[in-house]
Structure formats: C-alpha cells, structure tokens
Amino acid sequence: MATLLSALGRFSFRRRGIVALIWLALLAGIGFSAATAASTPGMSVAMPGTETQRAFDLLEERFPEANADGATARMVFRAEDGTRLTGGEAKSTVDRAVAGLGKDKDVVGVVDPYEAKAISKDQQTVYATVLYDAPMGEVTEESREALEKVAESARDAGLVVETGGTALETEPETGTGEVIGVLVAAIVLVITFGSLVAAGMPLITALVGVGIGVGGVIALAPLMDMSAVTSILAAMIGLAVGIDYALFIVSRYRSERAEGYDADTAAGRAVGTAGSAVVFAGLTVLIALAGLAVVGVPLLTKMGLAAAATVAIAVLVALTLVPAVLGFAGDRVLGRRTRKTRDEGEGGAHPATPKESLGTRWAKLVLRRPVAVLLTAVLGLGVIALPVTQLELGMPDDSSRSEESTQRKAYDIIAESFGPGANGPLMVVVDTNDVEGDPQSAVQGVAKQLGSLDGVLAVTPPEFNRAGDAAMLNVVPETGPTATQTQDLVHEIRDTSGETRSETGAEVMVTGSTAMNIDFSEKLNNALVPYLALVVGLAFVLLMLVFRSVLVPLKAALGFLLSVLAALGAVVAVFQWGWLADLLGVAQTGPIVSMAPIFLVGVVFGLAMDYEVFLVTRMREAYVHGQSPHEAVVTGFAHGARVVAAAAVIMISVFAGFIASDEPMIKMMGFGLAIAVFFDAFVVRMALVPAVLALLGRSAWWLPKWLDRALPSVDVEGEKLSTQKPAAEEKESVGVGS
After folding, report:
1. What is the DSSP letter of 424?
2. CB of 359 within 8 A of CB of 643?
3. Nearest to residue 247, comparing CAs of 278, 280, 282?
4. Cα(first)–Cα(last) distance of the chain, in Å?
C-alpha cells in the first residue's frame, strides 16, 4: 500500500495543476447543485418494524384527512384575572383567534377548544390545535409569523397566549461558535508549524473537502429525505477529520524534507507513510459511521452514511489535493526558521543539536512509572464515567427549551392546567377490519378498558374513519411524556391488545409522538450491543492488519471503551444533571437525546482509532526498523506526540464550536465529541498507550505465525520506501561511483 500511495502522492505533486483544477471543478459543480436544490426537509423519524410505525401507516391509509405526517401547533389561552374563558368577551377573543388561525393557506384544520372540550377545570385555560399540511421542520416562516400575529392580537385583548408544538420547529442554524472553532484551529496550526503557509494548507484543503461533502448532502437531501441536522453533523465531523488528516500529511512532508529528501520524493514518502495511516484511520471512521445502519432507523442510517461520505472525501483530499498544494507552496511550507537552518547547514555550519522534545520527556516518564500512570488514568476515567449508570434517554420536546421561550411557557401552562400527560397524549388506533360483530361496540369496549388502566387520566371519545373500519382515540396519561410511568402505560396497553384481538377481532395499536419516542429509545438501546460488536470486531481486524499484533488492537478497543464511557458520563452530568449547564448555555436539563449515545459511540470510536493509528504506527515503524520496544515508544512520541496533540486540540476546537448551537442534539454532540477527544487523545493515547506498551514489552507486537501468514501485508510502515535515499546521499553515492 505504501508504494501505491507514494506513487499517488508523487503524481499529485507533479501534476498539481490538474489535480487542483479537478477538485475545484468538483467543488463548484456540487456547490451549484446545492445552491439550486430544493429546501432541506424536516426531521422525520421512521422506524420500520415497530408498532408505532404500523399504526402510523394505518392512520395515513385509513385517515388521510387527518394528515398524520403534518406539523401541529398548540395555542394556549389563559385568563389570569379570574375571568372564565367559557363566555363573554374572553370567549369572543378566543373565537376570533381560532377563526384567524384557519385563514392560513397552509393550515388544513383547527381544532376548536370548545368543541374538543380542551377547557381546564377552572375554565381559565383553553387551547386550540392547529394542523398543517407541511411536516415538522417545513412549516414556512410566513405561517409561523401568522401564528404569532394571532397570538399578539389575543394578548392585546388581555389574555396570556403562548404557542408550542412541532410547527414552530426551525432548521438549526450555524453560528459564531463554529467560526471561533476554526479560528482556534488556525492558531494551533500556526504554533505547530511556525509557518502561515503550512498552517493554511490543512484549513484550505479541509474546507474544500467539507464543501464537497456537505454540498453533496444538501443537494441530495430532498431526494433522500435528509434533514438539516444531517448536513450539520457531516460538516462537524468532516471538518475535524479533514484538518487532522491534512495536518499529518503536511507534518510528515516537513519531516521528510528535514531529513534531506527533495520535494518530489518527500511528498511521495509523506503520502506513502502518513497517508497509509490516514487511509486506515479513515476506514475505521467509515466502519463506525456506516455501521449505524444496523440500528434499523433510517434517520440514523442517513446521518451515518452522510458523515461517512464526507470522511471518505476528506481522505481523498488528504491523499491528492494536499500533496498538490504542497507543490504550489514550495519551500514556504517549511517555515522561515527551518529554511534558514537548512541554508546554514548547506553553507557548512552545523545546526545545533535539537533539544529533547516534550513528547520524548513525557514518554520516558511514563516508561519509568507505567503502573502508576496506568492506574491513575483508569481510575480517573472510571470516576468520570460513573454518571452513565443514571443515563436516561428521550427525545427533545418543548419541555427541554428555555424557560423564556413561548414553547416552554405553553408546555408549562398545559401541564399545570390539564395535567402533565396532556403534553404527550397517546394516540390509540383500532383496526376493526376483522371484527365480526358491531365495530362501534368493539371500539367502545376498547375505550372503556383503556380508561380503567392505572395511570390513565382521560380517554377521548373514539373517532371513526369514513369507511368505518378504523377508529382513533387519545389516551391522556397522568404523567408527562418522558416519565417512566408513561412508558410503563404504553407497554401495558400493548400487552392487553392481544387479549382484545382474540376476543373481538379488533387490533389495538399505540402511536403518536410519545409512543414513537419510547420505541425509538428502546430500539437504540437494543441495538447498542450488536452495533458495538460489529464495529469493534471489524476495526479489530483492520488494526491487526496495520500493527501485525493481537494485543495492540485489543488495547485500542479497551481504551476506546474507557474514553467513550467517560464522555457519556460527562454528557449525563451536564445535560441531565445540570453541572456547568449555565456555562455551556444548556437552557434546560432532561433526558439525553436518544440517538446521541449510539451516534457518539460510533463517531468517537472512529476518531479514537485515528489517534491510535497515527501515534502507534510510528512506534511500529521504529520497532520494525530494529529499535527495542521502549525505544520505539520514545521514537513514536518524539515524532508523533506534538502532531497528535495539535490534531486533538484542533478537533476539540471544531467540535466545541458547535456547543453554541440552539439544536439540543447538535449542542450535545458537540460537547460529547469534544470531551471524548480530550479524554481519548490526552489520557488514553498519551498515557495509557505508552504505559501498557511498556508493561507488555515485545509481547505487544506478538502475532501467531499462522495468523501472520494468513493476513495480507499492507506495509503501513513504508518498509519498501526505506530504500529511497535523501538527495544529498544520492549525490554523494554518485560522486563516489564516478
């Protein structure tokens, strides 16, 4: 592989004009497609094979007029001066507001609070439900403005009016946080390289890759029904890995030039060695992200594949565009001090012996005290991971918003006036197609049975479809949408549905947003272990190919588990318990977004293997070339620690920039990924890895002979490139021969 990649690097370096034009043309073409694409669809959660999805599909088939996929809004009216809203001027105000809500062309229906009996016991609070033709996330700005205009008119009449519901959901916006993250990355690159040219290259090439990847996601979003969150996550991951991959190629190129290789050869060697690490690191990320498909949730699958495609583009950019840009930069990529030192060396002056680097000193310290370092790191991460035992999963709703938002105020008023369960009623669908007797009697029996269950506050009268072969009714729980008691109630209704079907022939199914969130969380929980087994198993085999070892990949996997558990513990402490919530701008604590843990696991695993490959590959390279295990660890740190640390800081900065997002999942993922990279890079890879390798010694690189023969040789260390000599040595050998 090293030979093939080296040839690719040299080709890109020599034909830099053509390579750069190809990438720029691709960027322009995809950018144009993204700019002219239809608007990005809203986030829709489909879960094939679940009862919630079957009931939802039945609703669309039997109740097409209900527009089950459409967004809804709830406008809550309250009189705080003791006035009852059931008569007089107050009722007239509500009636005018309800009439005004129906004037919007995108509204397919308005449920009158007086007809639906959505009136509190003290008659001082009512709410109207607005049904839209567009799904969640696609309601127009004009429609949202019309809602606010109606609410403002009712407020002017003396009522308290707040609005909630999915119709108010908007596409998450990127803010200044992401820009700050990129600026921090730029500063780190300047400090690392000591050259503005060298620092700018990873940023420019990464932005090209992200532009192509995210542009492709946006262009395909209408066709593949991908939400705006998908493109933001793809940008987050693509930007971070794109900068890191380019950083490692540029760093290795500068190292090869410092050893005396000419620019052409150095570019080939950089792509052949560091590029091999980039390929395998990228493959682990691809495996982790594409593996999300095993969960069986299309939304998560699309997110994973979109992010994986962006990472694949980042790898290709690093292998081709980076060496091309190196060719354009020339010696300016080396930095002024390095060029001056080299010129002095050519003039006969001998450069001063370089000082021992911080990475070298740290590696030697760990090698002297491996047990102490190992225990400290493991215990520290273990303590931070403890909050994971209290992990609660759920989907964000209006209760997770800021207390100052109208959505949260509407949620609180409804909970106070109608009970917590009114914010998350369960929609029960009854299929009477196989009922032999009277369908209406069967449905009435179902309603009576549901009303007798513990935890049920109310059951609305059944509503039949036009054909009379299906009915739907709402069950209002006594507890809120995210409460454990509500989850138990959903399971109890489903447990009794089998008996109902055997007695009457009616099939009872529970759906609605509350039930869907419950099913979604359970599906993700059930998929976590198989997902981990698949991803870790495939990556284990991949790392065995890279390191020709059994224990090094095992150590890498165990270290990943420590870092990801610690990261999840930190997420629980901040977003569920509220530690440092004000500092990080967390408006409201609550259950962790259901898809966040498994997505976090997938992304963190891929990124963790990045640092494992980049750092340990240099150790393996030194060991293969004859150094002792301890010397190889020191050499690996001498060459890789500074760059890995810089790459980690860059990735942390990029991810941390997304903490400023208003979207709960984006904020949570930004924090989780940033803290996970910190734990993995600076605790696991910088402390645990050298400590474990010190304790294992030569055993770390043990591989059974039969397995060594069975595994293909990929030459990540670039042994075949070691026959190449620096330009100076080539000149000397030519002179001797002549």
Report:
1. S
2. no
3. 278
4. 35
pLDDT in tens, 207-218: 999 999 989 888
| Residue of higher predicted confidence among 36 and 177 | 36
Task: Tell which residue, 578, 574, 594, has the closest CA to residue 676.
Answer: 574
**C-alpha of 624 from chain center:** 37
Contact yes or no for 515/495 (Cβ under 8 A): no
The DSSP bridge pattern shows strands 70-78 and 463-464 to be unpaired
Residue with tokens 């933001």, as numbered in its chain: 232
The structure tokens listed for 128 are 């109207």
| Residue-averaged pLDDT of the chain | 84
| CA 567-573-579 angle, 5° bins | 130
Return d(Cα 269, Cα 358) in angstroms, integer: 26
Q: Give, in order, the Cα–Cα distances in Å from 604 to each of 276, 297, 596, 637.
A: 21, 20, 12, 22
Per-residue burial over 481-518, b if 16 or more Cβ lie within 10 Å, else e, is bbbeebbebbebbeeebeebeeebbbbbbbbbbbbbbb
What gap in Å lies between CA 575 and CA 593, rounded to an integer?
10
Give me Rg for the CA atoms of the chain: 30
User: Is residue 738 pLDDT above 50, yes or no?
Assistant: no
Supply 153's token pair. Answer: 């008119």
Structure-token match 């209900």, residue found: 66
Q: Are 715 and 546 in contact, with CB atoms under 8 Å apart?
A: no
Per-residue model confidence as pLDDT tens digits over 379-428:
999 999 999 998 888 777 777 777 888 999 999 999 999 999 999 889 99
- Residue 478 per-residue DSSP state: S
619 within 8 A of 635, measured Cβ to Cβ: yes
As to burial, measured by CB atoms within 10 angstroms (0-12 exposed, 13-18 middle, 19+ buried), residue 115 is: exposed
Ordered DSSP codes for 185-220: HHHHHHHHHS-HHHHHHHHHHHHHHHHHHHHHHHHH
> SS3 for 404?
coil
Q: Could you give the residue ranges of the DSSP H alpha helices within 505-628?
A: 513-547, 551-571, 581-584, 595-624
pLDDT value for 730 = 45
Tell the residue number behind the tokens 């690392």, with chain if given: 192
C-beta pairs of 619-624 under 8 Å, 24+ apart in sequence? 619/693, 620/546, 620/547, 620/548, 620/549, 620/552, 620/701, 620/716, 620/717, 621/273, 621/717, 621/718, 623/701, 624/717, 624/719
Tokens describing residue 590:
């609550």
The residues pairing with 163 across neighbouring beta strands, listed in sequence order, are: 75
Check: CB of residue 334 under 8 Å from CB of residue 259: no
Rounded to an integer, what distance in angstroms lies between the CA atom of residue 612 and that of residue 644? 10
**pTM of the full predicted structure?**
0.79
Residue with tokens 């007798």: 452
User: Tens digit of pLDDT for each residue in 147-185?
Assistant: 999 999 999 999 999 999 888 877 666 556 667 777 888
Cα gap 228→213, rounded to integer Å: 14
